[in-house]
Design a protein that fits this description.
851 residues, alpha/beta, six-stranded mixed β-sheet, 24 strands, 47% helix, flat
């Protein structure tokens, strides 16, 4: 038997491998997009403006005053940032500050304490704040109420506590040790300013170099995926609320030191400016974007604006109006940015989702999936009859699919005609030109579109020709709009075809989708060069599918190449990572079906020790009395028709199905049937979800961040992450699983579906103690090339003793990959076929057990 390549799961030897770390990845990870400097630019502009308007503003004394007034808001914003990053909100900070101020007053007022015990007041304030924050977090995760409701209640509790503990008393002066925090100056600044600076630096480090910071961002972007990564989401939420509670307590101490007294209204007026400061700085209320540095910048913007208006003599009432308008504007912008982020995360403009097309006696397309991304040229190649033109006809409504879906800009569309396609911004340049020879250029351009030049069936020729000229100018063409098409050369008619498609732009606000079906088949080399120049120009305003059978053209013009054969997906390649030879081999098909699943590496497992066992596993309405075994190194396929319960069993084993009963064993040791995903991961179980975009990857984060999401913290020390080791580890798995990307720091949503699946798998292969890997429809949406890579990785893992339980997409995959097949029907096990190495059952036998 041939030597099997090794996948040393969790092996320490990988960390010592000498792998060059590409400088471009480090540069990318350290680079902040210019738009993220917007808040800093605003701050600098305000400083410059008020310096011009008021000489007093630019003085050292006034600068110190701004920093003094910023100290308390900075501390609050630093803590609030982690709450907002997780997509939550905390309304209780004013109540916590009030309770803290009164607690400090009761402990260290001069009239109460005989000695200077200011440090007791500081400790008491921090303790009160921490307890309130911890209560917020526990109530939030246990009661599962919105954070808005929980913290609103705590706000009133804090205010009530402060009022009850201070009924009718006169404010009392606090001890000198506490008031000295605000009164004593070092380099013209009080201790409070230095405390705020220290808090800021600590928070920045916490966000950038801790698992808590990473998970705060991941929870805000995609909580479901973060949870499936095995991290305790509830713990991170409690920690975030405890942190803001602690810092609110500190802020209460600071404001008491500034006032020199304890006061129930100590925190009044800090809540909304704190939230607004975070938003103004660039931290989204919807979570997942921004950070401590941005929020602190937002605080400084508000304080500089307030101080500047005072220095320039702006009326107090007008100041309130300006500040209120800025707060409202910040919230509106945050909502707009959140929507923009959601749109940006979905980079796919047009996609086919398992499209099939059947004609009488002919299967033209079979479950074809394909994605076209924003401002991309996608090359589509295949032999004659591979289904390329049929796919384009489905996209433009010329034909209707037999099954599957078409998604345009993230939404499912039923395109019934070319006219409807044009209204949606989809245009097709036909292989055989679709112009009408005896009509003018202008008539052809607007023949199938609504136009203001046509009313009641009559043309306003001047308006029509002027509109046609505008379309032709987009292509830098001087073709007269009133000439008949039959008098044009072929290349000129091709320009009219392009103009006809570009006219669709006037019908939609979104970017265009332009489909080119063999546009170069009858062009000369010089005409092809002109065509390519126009296509490159169009790329800035459209996403393009370029169909051709000429490999050199496809490699020259395309950003990606999608290969089809016999109506099916075959592979996807990047032009810089392939050549003519490979593309031709992919088109004609060189991989034989008998080695596709590497069945020669299948073994018997009758004597292997049990790795996973279930006894009478049940969940009402999903499955019942499921008893199965998965042995060490064995690949077990759990299969059945839709609704059989197979997917739910996999999710239940990983701890994702509430209400599950029965018994689950790892080896000979029983583990709790209601164990959480994080507990199961600690026991060596991994789970690759079927819906990778919803549960497998965190969009808006890099490929590297996704791979190290679950186990990256193990490469650091003391909760501090080690980015260099994480990057090296991620690169190892990307190379091993053949993840295709020009940059490992690229956003994961920019990858093809197959490569996203590989990233989701790599996340679990980083486990130092992986024993069982659960794969729920792992090949869904993958092309054959990506499937082959996945099948090879499954065989390699099994050869090293990792057990695999998977739900297959097809019966062929089940028979090809499984060592044991367990069939489910109506929530129960209906048949089991063991030791496929010795005897492979007939497909009919499995189908019979399914139905």
């Amino acid at each position: 038997m041939a030597k099997v390549p090794s996948i040393a799961v969790g092996g320490a030897s990988r960390f010592s491998e000498r792998r060059e770390l590409p400088a471009r990845i480090i540069d990318r990870m350290k680079t902040i997009p210019i738009k993220d400097f917007g808040s800093a630019i605003i701050l600098m502009a305000l400083l410059f403006l008020f310096s011009l308007l008021s000489p007093q503003f630019a003085t050292l004394t006034n600068s110190q005053a701004i920093l003094e007034s910023s100290a308390v808001p900075i501390v609050l914003a630093a803590g609030m940032t982690f709450i907002i990053l997780q997509g939550s909100i905390d309304l209780s900070i004013e109540g916590i500050m009030a309770a803290t101020s009164i607690a400090v007053s009761l402990l260290v007022a001069n009239s109460v304490t005989p000695a200077d015990y200011g440090w007791i007041g500081i400790l008491a304030g921090l303790t009160v704040g921490l307890l309130f924050g911890l209560a917020n977090g526990l109530l939030y995760v246990i009661m599962r109420l919105p954070s808005l409701i929980v913290t609103l209640a705590t706000w009133f509790i804090g205010l009530g506590f402060a009022t009850l503990m201070f009924p009718g008393r006169q404010p009392q002066i606090l001890e000198p040790r506490l008031t000295s925090l605000a009164l004593d100056k070092t380099f013209g600044l009080s201790t409070l300013v230095y405390v705020a600076v220290a808090v800021t630096l600590a928070a920045i480090v916490l966000q950038a170099f801790s698992q808590f910071g990473r998970m705060s961002m991941a929870i805000g972007i995609d909580e479901k995926t973060a949870r499936l990564s095995g991290n305790s989401i509830r713990l991170h939420k409690v920690l975030a609320f405890s942190l803001i509670g602690l810092l609110s307590g500190l802020a209460g101490v600071m404001i008491s030191a500034q006032l020199s007294v304890g006061n129930p209204s100590a925190g009044q007026g800090y809540l909304f400016p704190t939230i607004s400061a975070a938003v103004i700085g660039g931290t989204l209320l919807s979570g997942g974007k921004g950070g401590v540095l941005q929020s602190i910048t937002g605080v400084l913007i508000l304080e500089v604006l307030r101080n500047g208006m005072i220095q320039t003599g702006v009326d107090p009432y007008l100041r309130h109006v300006v500040e209120g308008a800025i707060i409202v504007g910040a919230l509106v912008v945050s909502g707009w940015q959140a929507r923009s982020r959601d749109e940006d995360c979905e980079m796919t403009i047009l996609s086919a989702d398992r499209l099939s097309k059947t004609y009488p006696g002919v299967q033209a397309l079979s479950t074809v999936s394909m994605e076209l991304r924003e401002n991309e040229i996608l090359g589509l190649i295949g032999q004659n009859g591979s289904g390329k033109s049929t796919l384009l006809k489905l996209f433009t409504g010329i034909e209707q699919p037999s099954s599957g879906r078409i998604l345009l800009r993230g939404k499912e569309k039923i395109i019934r005609s070319p006219l409807e396609a044009a209204s949606l911004g989809v245009g097709l340049v036909h292989q055989e030109q679709s112009l009408i020879p005896n009509l003018t250029v202008a008539e052809n351009i607007f023949f199938d579109k609504k136009s203001s030049a046509r009313k009641f069936g009559f043309y306003n020729w001047r308006t029509l020709n002027r509109a046609a000229e505008q379309q032709l100018k987009k292509l830098e063409s001087d073709i007269p709009p009133d000439i008949r098409v039959e008098n044009l050369s072929f290349s000129q008619r091709q320009m009219v075809e392009f103009a006809k498609v570009l006219a669709v732009e006037e019908l939609v606000d979104e970017p265009l989708v332009i489909l080119f079906d063999e546009p170069t088949s009858l062009l000369s080399p010089s005409e092809i060069d002109d065509l390519f120049r126009q296509i490159q120009r169009l790329k800035h305003r459209a996403s393009i599918v370029f169909v051709s059978h000429r490999m050199d053209e496809v490699l020259k013009i395309s950003d990606r190449v999608h290969v089809m054969s016999n109506g099916e997906n075959v592979a996807e390649r990047l032009p810089g990572q392939t050549d003519h030879r490979e593309l031709y081999q992919l088109m004609v098909g060189v991989r034989r079906s008998d080695d596709y699943y590497l069945e020669e590496r299948r073994k018997s497992f009758a004597d292997a020790p049990r790795r996973l066992g279930t006894e009478r596993l049940s969940k009402p309405g999903a499955f019942r009395n499921i008893s199965l075994d998965v042995r060490e190194g064995e690949i077990v396929a759990l299969t059945g028709v839709a609704g059989s319960g197979a997917e739910e069993v996999c999710r239940a084993i990983f701890g994702l199905e509430d209400g599950t009963k029965g018994r689950i064993f790892l080896g000979d040791e029983e583990r709790p049937v209601n164990a959480t995903p994080s507990q199961n991961i600690a026991m060596g179980i991994g789970y690759v979800a079927a819906e990778r975009k919803l549960e497998g990857v965190v969009t808006g984060r890099s490929i590297i961040d996704n791979i190290v999401l679950t186990f990256g913290s193990l490469l650091g020390r003391g909760g501090v992450i080690n980015r260099e080791r994480e990057t090296r580890e991620a690169l190892f798995w990307m190379d091993r699983l053949k993840v295709k990307t020009p940059n490992a720091a690229e956003y994961v949503e920019r990858l093809s579906g197959g490569n996203q699946q590989k990233v989701s798998l790599a996340k679990w292969l980083m486990s130092p103690d992986l024993k069982l890997l659960i794969l729920d429809h792992p090949t869904r949406g993958l092309d054959p090339g990506a499937k082959a890579d996945l099948f090879e990785a499954m065989r390699d893992l099994a050869d090293q003793g990792v057990s695999i339980l998977f739900v297959s997409e097809t019966l062929e995959e089940t028979l090809g990959m499984a060592d044991t097949i367990v069939v489910m029907r109506d929530g129960v096990v209906s048949a089991a076929f063991r030791d496929l190495n010795a005897f492979k059952p007939a497909p009919e036998a499995i189908v019979e057990a399914m139905v």
